[in-house]
Amino acid sequence: MIKELFIDRKEHLKSLTHGLKNGKDYILIAPRRFGKTTLAQKILEDIAQDADCLTIHIDIMRYSGSVQSVAEGIVENCLNALGFMGRLKFLLKQIEFSFKLKVKYGDLEMEPLLQLIREKNDEWLLLEQALELVEKIAVKHNKKIIVFFDEFGELFYLGERVIKVFRSVIQLQKHVNYLFAGSQETLMTKVFVEKSGAFYRFGNLIFLKNLERDEILLYLTEMNLPYEIIEIILHKFNCHPYYTSKIIKDLIIEPQHAKSIDTFLDYINNVLISQENGYLELQLQKIKEKTHALDVMVNLSMGLDPYSSLNISRQAAYLALKNLENGGFITKIEKAKYVISDPLLALYLNR
């Protein structure tokens, strides 16, 4: 029952799986922990059951340090799809790997590509050839290939040229379809939604939303939770897919957490936050990299306006807000008004 309620993406799962196998491309946009990656992985699992399809999952976050790294990541995951499992830098050192690759996949012309990786002297040519490799593999195997790029918005930080190279190569491919996902809504919008974006009108846009409030209210009511606790869950966590489902699962396993408001608040502060501490601290580490960003986040967590509550210029506050919005940490709800995207992070900052 809980699994069915909170991985409530059945229609998306069905339509995207069918669409990707039949020549469509999709873009998934939603804040962190909204289930983008889980949905995409399930789609790939379902597609992989089809003997006429191959799937490749590339997490841009792992390779976003440079153009060279992104290109190597694409090659590495293509090699994984061919059965050569392992990190690329170790595979390149193995004579047996090179021999097997030449014998089995000589017609893919992999050696010039691998030489570019070894020499590290032309990252742009390497990126083009890495992206072209996907189509070559599809033709070689006579299969449809589905590529999932997770956190695609991270490419934006490497410059517009990277994204334009992606589009210039991908748009010519006939045997590959793509699923892009990103948590930085502003950046994904610039790439896929705005007319000036390199991927404007490239695929079908899907914005994953919060869970339905009425559905959650009904479920919480059926659990016989005290009204005050239901209000806290709905108000503080705003039907966030990950946290709402986790809280309900925890309360089913350990109902003593919901005996009273005090026990429930204690659960949030000493159990839930403790369990998610590593993730929360990682987000804070990223936030601290931007000037004034942490101060702005703390003020937003308290419901304050950073333009008037902080001793910084309006321009500095504006830049901090834009950096946080671009990073997916906050969401604009109306002119000059923002909320923290992650409700537990907001509580964590306001303790």
Characteristics of this structure?
351 residues, alpha/beta, Rossmann fold, Arc Repressor Mutant, subunit A, 3 domains, two-stranded antiparallel ribbon, 20 helices, 7 strands, globular, disordered N terminus
Structure, described:
This protein has 351 residues and is an alpha/beta fold. The chain folds into three domains: 2-207, 3-Layer(aba) Sandwich (Rossmann fold), CATH 3.40.50; 213-275; 277-349, Arc Repressor Mutant, subunit A (Orthogonal Bundle). Helices cover 59% and strands 11% of the residues. It is built from 20 helices and seven strands. The chain has helices at residues 2-6, 10-21, 36-48, 60-63, 67-81, 88-91, 95-105, 110-119, 123-141, 160-170, 185-192, 213-222, 227-237, 241-253, 261-275, 277-288, 293-301, 306-309, 314-326, 343-349; strands at 26-29, 53-59, 144-150, 176-182, 204-207, 330-334, 337-340. Strands 2-3-4-1-5 form a five-stranded parallel beta sheet, with helices on both faces. Strands 6-7 form a two-stranded antiparallel ribbon. Helix 2 crosses helix 3, helix 5 (67-81) packs parallel to helix 9 and helix 17 (293-301) crosses helix 20. The chain is globular and about 70 Å long. It starts with a helix and ends with a helix. The model is unreliable at 1-7 (pLDDT under 50).
